[in-house]
Amino acid sequence: VLKVLEFNSTRKRMSVVVRNPEGRSVLYTKGADSVIYARLAKDHDSELKDRTSKDMEAFANGGLRTLCIAYRDLSEEEYLSWSRTYDAATSATENRDEEIDKANELIEHSLQILGATALEDKLQEGVPEAIETLHKAGIK
């Protein structure tokens, strides 16, 4: 793992840059489908995009939380140039978060879909009972 671009609720995604076994840099991004789809390559396979979207809709209709996963191959030159920008942003003494967001935007684009996942969010212990108590009290 070369870099980790952290998740936050504004970004609705996280990414990692890794060096694959062939020595090339690859960006992997996971996040909300709306965020990932907005960052897909212009020439992305529309059939794969539509099929993945339908699968995620079926997962969501089944009560599951979905995440879309995408990737982008990076040239060594692009990675090194971006890495310098990102490192400067993480070291900024003023407006660090904004600078990091700007650096992230420079690389999280032209993505290709890998697929989607579906997760069951289990309720924490005591939550069903708390909801039932609120419901009985007439609180919605």
Beta fraction: 25-35%
Q: In terms of quaternary structure, what is this?
A: single chain
Q: State the name of the first-level CATH class.
A: Alpha Beta
How would a crystallographer describe the biggest sheet? 5 strands, antiparallel
Helix content: 40-55%
Give an account of the 3D structure.
With 140 residues, this protein is of the alpha+beta class. The chain has a single domain (3-136), classed as Calcium-transporting ATPase, cytoplasmic domain N (3-Layer(aba) Sandwich), CATH 3.40.1110. 41% of the residues lie in helices and 25% in strands. The chain contains five helices and five strands, in the order βββααβααβα. The protein has helices spanning 33-37, 46-61, 76-90, 96-107, 127-136, and strands at residues 3-5, 13-19, 25-31, 65-74, 112-119. It has a five-stranded antiparallel sheet. A hairpin with a 5-residue loop joins strand 2 (13-19) and strand 3. The radius of gyration is 19 Å and the shape is globular. It is found in: Endomembrane system. It holds the Pfam family Cation_ATPase. Its main location: membrane.
Question: What topology does this entry show?
Answer:
Layout: E1 3-5, E2 13-19, E3 25-31, H1 33-37, H2 46-61, E4 65-74, H3 76-90, H4 96-107, E5 112-119, H5 127-136
Which descriptors would you attach to this protein?
single chain, Calcium-transporting ATPase, cytoplasmic domain N, alpha+beta, transport, globular, 5-stranded antiparallel beta sheet, 140 residues, 5 helices, 41% helix
